[in-house]
Write a structure and sequence with these properties.
This protein has 169 residues and is of the alpha/beta class. It is 30% helix and 28% strand. The chain has a 6-stranded mixed β-sheet with strand order 2-3-1-4-5-6, sandwiched between helices. The longest helix has 17 residues. The radius of gyration is 15 Å and the shape is globular. The chain starts with a strand and ends in a 6-residue tail after the last helix. It binds guanosine-5'-triphosphate (GTP). Guanosine-5'-triphosphate binds next to helix 1. The site of guanosine-5'-triphosphate has 22 residues, from helix 1. Belongs to the small GTPase superfamily. Rab family. This is Ras-related protein Rab-22A isoform X2.
Length: 169
Amino acid sequence: MALRELKVCLLGDTGVGKSSIVWRFVEDSFDPNINPTIGASFMTKTVQYQNELHKFLIWDTAGQERFRALAPMYYRGSAAAIIVYDITKEETFSTLKNWVKELRQHGPPNIVVAIAGNKCDLIDVREVMERDAKDYADSIHAIFVETSAKNAININELFIEINSSKYLL
Ligand SMILES: Nc1nc2c(ncn2[C@@H]2O[C@H](COP(=O)(O)OP(=O)(O)OP(=O)(O)O)[C@@H](O)[C@H]2O)c(=O)[nH]1
């Protein structure tokens, strides 16, 4: 069976749940006491898609401001970027928009962008409306899903949507 490799990076504010999304996707587990990422971390997962094997090479970047300058090393050469915000923190959605701008200016020209509104299990304290985020995603031709790494909502779907994007090279 043919093997196709797909480099994906995760971007977004500290604490939005980037590592938790990767951990849920790769290991199907969740750690409420997960540590902030230092620099970046790398994981892989291979899935069967139609009659091919697709190997995701996943770079999970650190969201803390002091690591921001490292991000280009990870988004350069990526086929897709998952930009994550926390639906309970409006400011993380502003950070997401800055990442979109940076990718447009300095990222690979055909990079597939996926927006993940994480922590959708916490709807009682929601600050970002799903409709607003979806409209924004549509305006920049990005994939959009609300996810919960904690409750395993839409995590596999997020990667499946990336995998099946018609824009993927
Ligand atoms: N309720 C809830 N908590 C979550 C979810 N995903 C992550 N968390 C929690 O949010 C906190 C931060 O998660 P991380 O995965 O470390 O966030 P990160 O974006 O990788 O943070 P940095 O590594 O600093 O960039 C942790 O306490 C997680 O347990 C979720 O879907 N729901």
